Amino acid sequence: MWHRTLRSRLLASQLAVFGLFSLFAYVALDMALVRILMHRVDGELETHLLLLVDEFADLSEDNRARMQAHLTQFSYVSGTTETFFRILSEDGDAELTSDMSFWEEVTHKPLPGARIEHQPFVWETLRGVGRDGQDARVIYYLSPNRNLYQFGRSLSEVESVITNTRLGFALTLLVIMLVGGFVSYALTVKSIQGVVRVTDAAVAVREQGDLSQRVTPDYGIVEADALAQTFNEMMDQIEALVANVHYMTNTIAHDIRSPVARMRGVAESVASGQTHMRNDAIAELVVDQCDHILGLVNTLLDITAAESGTVKWEPVPVDLEHETVVVLDLLEPLIETKDLLIKRHFSLSRPVWTDQKAVQRVIFNLIDNAAKYCPTTGGQIDVTVAQRDDEVYFAVQDNGPGIEKDEQALVFNRFFRGDRARSHGGHGLGLSFCKAAIESLGGQIGMESHSGGSLFWFTLPNAN
User: Fold this and answer.
1) Which of 135, 148, 179, 263 is most buried as measured by Cβ atoms within 10 A of its Cβ?
2) Domain 2-160 class, CATH top level
3) Does the pLDDT of residue 312 top 60, yes or no?
């Protein structure tokens, strides 16, 4: 199971990349080292060969014995196991030679042949030509008098340096791999710590139902902190939604229980023969209570459809001034009862393309609310319909008591009813529907309130 975790896969990928890079670096350094050392050996071979060529240029019979003695001395000084030197005739016969007892295998190796005709020097490496299997680096030079000079040197010292250096490289890379693996593990653990904590918190929510679970975004990694922050915001929303569901459930149960209880009471009275109500009065009461329940359910369904985007609006050219006048006519009895002063501020010259029924319902809710909360003496409502750039602006302002400051952010919530609203009846869904409908139609809605009254407004895009 461990090999399937994000931690193991991240660590394995990091180690694989780091290992390949280290191997590439090792091979590159090894090749560079070998090239540098062999270049140095070739330079030394060329220098010594040129000195020997100059010294042994005269191979006459008179000088041959002296040169052979000098060459033998040179071999012992340089070390017979370290170097060898031969002067060969054009036919490949040895004219002069150092002590070749240690390098006898060299005498059986083929000569460079035609290669020496096209370049002044030829180098080659002879493998296992020493008595103990040593390798040798050899340089050849063809003199003007057609004598072939061969000078060789043991590679034991160079190979020892290469071996020790390779061992040092390997140990260094091993230490780097171990340290790198530890660092990679630490970084991997730190980078996925946010994922682990979010997972643990999510498991606690699932198994314990604890919606208070939160993750502190303090990992120092942007992505991990963003994940923790997103999880916290999501949990805030879920907790708020669950609390809202509980609140709505309780409110719906309360709003439905009252009319159901009334109908049950009437039904029990009829069943026991103790009622004095006429049949038409009973039927009227039942219908009224059923309308109350249906109104609550239908409004909830309308709000849900608008918020989810599943409602099918029927856009037509709508004259907001005309719709406002229609609503004011419908509310004329309430306006006359409270002796309200209605001031109209209309400056709209063209209709807006929107759903006529939804907008009329929103206007009705806003003006109805303003009329309810206006004082019975000196009450005034200002209704504004105006064109603002590419949108239509509608506003209703009253001179009522206003809305408490701590309640203003909640007025568009479902079933919310402030302290001053409880005496006016209703479900607390009117403003929720206004917000859902206007935003679904592409507009915006808002409010302002103070002790001298409240202003509710909305805008709709003025586009075809």
Assistant:
1) 148
2) alpha beta
3) yes
